[in-house]
Amino acid sequence: MSHTMKAVVWYQARDLRVESVEVPHLEDPHQVKVKVAACGICGSDLHEYSAGPIFIPVDTPHPISGQRAPIIMGHEFAGKVVEVGEHVTRIKPGDRVAIEPILSPHQDGRYLMERYNLTPLLGFHGLSGGGGGFSEYTVVGEHMVHPLPDSLSFEQGALVEPAAVGLHAVRQSSFKAGDSAVVFGAGPIGLVVIEALKAAGASTIVAVEPSTARRHKAEELGAKTLFPDFDDVVGRIHELTQGGADFAFEVTGIPAVLSQAINATHEGGETVIVSIWESEANFQPNDLVIKERTLKGIIAYRHIYPAVMALMEQGYFRAENLVTARIALEDVVEQGFEALLGDKSQVKIIVEPGR
To answer: Has residue 185 been placed in a domain?
Structure first.
């Protein structure tokens, strides 16, 4: 077996290189080596490429990975286990797995915190060092590995990570079956929020999205859609939801959208912020106060991969609805990152390192 492999390495914004690197090896008895089969390109990957570093450690190494840039990217992935450390009990070579890429304090194959996504040390495998999914092989902790049901493809396995964000967002809200919701932004995460809302029994889902192709995707998933460029997007949402949505999910990170999301809900409504922000945003606190609305944020996910995969087995979060291109590792910059930046008809692009 060759000692080198191809990987996509981030050096700085707009500088991603496909390079030959050392194949990683197990350094800890609770580690697992995975041959990557499919890895998605995420919105946060795009931000790191176009405007980073955001999560990528540059000046000081990440406290958990011990690494800093240049780092291998890719955190939405699935593959086949090829080797396990001597203390690994839950997984064996040959198993098909989806990776939970959260870097959070861990010991003996388990995360230490109950709410492990809320650690001050939060990082992601494939963003914060330690290897990544845009490579032929990567090594992760046993606590980051989830068996993939036989009925789910590797490509479907690569969608567990983004789907987990959508499901966690809905589950952390007070949403109940029969409620209505509006989703601002119908990119990959907006679309999985729509799917999670469907799974949770939403009566009406409205998606606000400027891209025609992405509006079409949202409609295919059962949402009513609005183009945001007219004067009264909030008023239109109130019409479509008979007086305001029960819930709003903000998935754009665009400052002006925050107050639209808050005001799209009725009295006592709730807005969940799913985006990671590059700047500050303004809103009028009285929009919360006088109408007794709630505003909350969520980050990533926790304890949710098994639920995501169970829903996938029922037909939710289907690759057919989300994946718009499949590319080789060598083509990741032009056909992956540049395509996503320039063409909003692309939704989820899957990189296949073995292709």
So the answer is: yes
How many other CB atoms are found less than 10 A from the CB of residue 333? 16
Summarised one tens digit per residue, pLDDT across range 120-170 is 999 999 999 999 999 999 999 999 999 999 999 999 999 999 999 999 999
Q: Does the pLDDT at position 351 exceed 80?
A: yes
> Taking the CB of residue 355, how many other CB atoms lie within 10 A of it?
13
* Residue 133 lies inside a defined structural domain of this protein: yes
Q: Which residues pair with 137 in a beta bridge?
A: 35
pLDDT score recorded for residue 1: 61
The CATH number covering residue 277 comes to 3.40.50.720
Average pLDDT, whole number, for the chain? Answer: 96
Whether 174 and 108 map to the same domain: the answer is no
CA distances from 84 to 19, 56, 88, 120, 135 (A): 26, 27, 6, 29, 18
- 175 and 51: one domain? no
**Number of domains observed in the structure of the chain:** 2
Return the percentage of the chain with pLDDT > 90, whole number. Answer: 95
Q: How far apart are CA 290 and CA 87, in angstroms?
A: 56
pLDDT classification of 106: cutoffs 50, 70, 90: very high
DSSP structural state of residue 229? T
Please give the residue range of the domain that contains residue 66. 4-159+317-352
Same domain, 13 and 114: yes
20 bridge partner residues? 6
- Kindly state the DSSP code that residue 258 receives in the 8-state scheme: H
Statement: the pTM of the whole predicted model exceeds 0.85:
yes
Closest CA to 153 of 322, 323, 305, 37: 37
Q: Which residues contact 190 (CB under 8 A, 6 or more apart)?
A: 183, 184, 207, 209, 214, 218, 249, 251, 252
Residue 253, phi-psi category: left (phi > 0), alpha (psi -120 to 50), beta (remainder)? left
Look up residue 194 and give its two tokens. Answer: 């729509």
Question: Phi and psi dihedrals of 283, rounded to 5?
Answer: -145, 160
Given pLDDT bands bounded at 50, 70 and 90, which one contains residue 86? very high
From the CB of residue 247, how many other CB atoms can be counted at a distance below 10 Å?
27
